[in-house]
Amino acid sequence: MAIPCSEFAEILKDSYSAYYSIHDNPGELNTELPIAFRADYVARDERYWLTKSVKIWGNEKNEYAYVFIADSFSPELADRCMDWALEDGLPRVKPHSEHQCTNVKVIFIADSVSEETAKAVQKKSFTKNYKFGLHGYSNLLTGITDLGTEKTVTNKEGHELVPYFKKLFAARA
Questions:
Q1: Vertex 19 angle, CA 3 and 147, to 5°
Q2: Which of 139, 132, 134, 106 is nearest to 30 (CA)?
Q3: Does 26 have pLDDT greater than 70?
Q4: Which range is least confidently modeled, 54-58, 70-74, 116-120, 133-137?
């Protein structure tokens, strides 16, 4: 039994709200694209020796997840959404010596997904190194979920989304 897009979007938003800051005003983000919300994850780890003034190391990992919801996506619309997410997410990156990575994650949720759209999402790739990788990197993680068949297709970097969506579908059952 297929789950409605709006209901699954709320499940996804609730799941992301545990660790991410949710920005759910789509009109503020972009009005032409079917964006539901953006979720920001910012993490910083540090180690000290005796006191905080003697820092041993620091590490930052960030992620900006863009969730798009529609009945179906054409390959052109999916490509426009991914390009827009990169344009919006990359200026948020602040590379420095303790920056490890900042990923831009694009998630598509649709009632049905055509084979051409799934291939377009699967082929999309983007990687950027800052100062030859010494100041970190950025990747594009993409995934599209067909709510009718409960199938998720991702690009190479977004492979972590498949088990994540399987858990969401299992929790709903």
A1: 15
A2: 106
A3: no
A4: 54-58
Report the distance separating Cα 13 and Cα 36, nearest Å: 9
Q: Who's near 74: CB < 8 A, 6+ residues apart? A: 114, 117
Helix (H) or strand (E) holding 14: helix 5-16
51-70/35-49 β-pairing: antiparallel
Q: What is the pTM of this model?
A: 0.89
* pLDDT at residue 65 greater than cutoff 90: yes
Q: What's the rounded Cα separation, in Å, for the pair 132 and 119?
A: 30
Q: Rounded CA gap, 12 and 10, in Å?
A: 5
Residue-wise pLDDT for 80-129, tens only, equals 999 999 999 999 999 988 888 999 999 999 999 999 999 999 999 999 99
Do the Cβ atoms of 148 and 111 come closer than 8 Å? yes
Query: Would you say 70 and 107 are in contact if contact means Cβ atoms under 8 Å apart?
Result: no
Q: Which residue(s) pair with 141 in the sheet?
A: 105
Report the C-alpha gap between 17 and 79 in whole angstroms: 26
